[in-house]
Structures
1.
Amino acid sequence: MKIYDAENQILGRMCTFIAKDLLKGEDVVVINAEKSVLSGNPRWKKEHYQVKIRRGDPKKGPFFPRYPDDIFRRTVRGMLPWKQAKGRKVFKKLKVFTGVPEEHKNKQAEKMQAADASKLKTTYITLGDLSTSIGAKKRW
C-alpha cells in the first residue's frame, strides 16, 4: 500500500502517477487532498468548475462533486479506463482523505517531486479553496 501526501502537490500530475500505480495493482491512500493545487488563474478555475456543476439536470445528472476528496477521486477516475471492468475494479483500491485520518497518523507518506507546486511560476488555487467557492460546506 502506498500513502501519498497531497499537500502542495499539483493535482493533475499527482493523479497521473496514482492512476499508474492503481493499474499496476497497488492500493493507494491519499491524505490532505484539500491542500493539493490547481495551477492557473484562480478566477478562471472557479468559473470552469461552476460550469461543470451547473451542467445537466439536478435530478438526472450529470453530477459533479463539490468536496475536495471527491474532486480528487473524480480526477483520478478520468485517467483510468472507467468503461472497462479493469478500470472500475482498480478505482475501488483508491482511498482519498481530507486531512490525516487516525489510522494513517504515524505512517510515512510519500511526496512526489515531479508534482511539487513550489516550482510553479504562475498563480494557483488549492482544492479546498476551490471547493468552498463552488458551494461545498467546509468539513475538513
2.
Amino acid sequence: MGRTKTAPAAHAQPDKFPFAFVSCQKYESGYYTAIEHLCEEDLSLVIHLGDYIYEKGPTKGVREMPLATSVTLEDYRTRHALYKMDPVLQRSHAQFPWAVVSDDHEVSNNYAGLIPEKKSQEQGFVERRAAAYKAYYEHMPLRASVQPHDAYMTLYRTLRIGTLADLHMLDTRQYRTDQPCGDGSKPSCAEREGPSTMLGNVQEQWLKKQLTAGQVQGRARWNILAQQIIFSQIDVDPGPCHRYMMDKWDGYVQARKRLVDHMVERKLKDVIILSGDNHNNWVLDVKQDPNNERSAIVASEFSGTSLTSGGDGSDVAPEYADILGKNPQVKFHNSQRGCVRCSIAPKQMISDYRVVPYITRPDAPIKTLASFTVEAGQAGAIKV
C-alpha cells in the first residue's frame, strides 16, 4: 500500500514544488539512513539519478551481498529483489512518487552505449544490457511507454510542473560515444577535443526543443536537467598541469559546448543541472567558457553525494582537497553521505545539502550542512 501525487495541471501556477534527489546506493556499503529521514519530509517527488543497484559481487561489507556478478536476466531480477527487500526503500517508494533514470551500475561499470568498460566483456554485452534494462523496467516506477525493446529503452522525458518548471530526465549512458583518452582521470588528448556525443543526436535535438518550448510558449520559468554525471569542468590535477574525469561531461567537450552554446544563443534563463555519480556534494557555476574564470555563468549545477557508496565519507574527499583552489567555479564541496532537498518557487530555488555522519551503522542523525539559492533570472548559486 502506498500513495502518489499527480503533477500540477499544465496551466496551474504552484507556489512551490518540494522534491529531493539521490543517487548511488550500494547495498553492501551501508544503510539508507538519508532516505529514512526523507520519509519524514513533505515532498512532491523523489528523483533518483542512477546506480540504484550495483552489479558486482559477492562481497562482504556492512551488509552481505551474497549474489554473484549480474549478467543474465535472472541475475538482475534477483539483485533488484534483494535491494527492494530493504524496509527503508520499501517505505520511501510507498511514501512518494519517484522519477528515475539509470546510470552505469544498473548494467556494468562505465559502459558507454554498447561498449563495455573492458574488452574482455565485449562478448555477449548486448544481451547483458538487454537483460539489465528489462529487469530495471520490471522493478522501477516507469510508464508502459518506456518498456525496453531488446537492448534499448527510451528513458529521457520531460515532467511538467505546471507553469513553474520543466523537469527534463536525461540519459547520459545509453547513447554516448566511448570515453576518450583511455577513460579514468587523464590529461586532455586529441580524442577529448574531437567530435563526441553524450546524449546521442536524437536525444540532444529533443532536449534543445524542450528547453526552448517553454520559452516560446511562455510556460516554464525553470528548466531542470536531471542527469547522472557532473556537467561542469573540474581540473583534478593538484599541480600546474591539467587532468579531467573522462567518464563525466569533461570527457565530452564538444557535446557539452553544443548544449551550453544553445543556452546562450536562445538566452535561456533559470537553467538548473542536477547530477550524481561522483559520491561527493558539489555546487558549481556552469561557465560559458570553462577555461576562462571571467566567463559568463549560464547555469547552476547541484551535484549530490551518494546514499551509501564509498562508505562513511568525510568532510572533504582526500583526492579533491588540493584541487578546490584551482577551480573557482566550485562553490561548495563535501564528501559525506546524504541527499539534496530542494524547493522550486517562482522567484527562487533553494537546495539544502543534507548529510549524515555515518552509514556503516543504522540510526544516524541528519543535518543541513549548507543551503544555496538561485534567484530567478540570475544564474549562479548563492550560499545562504
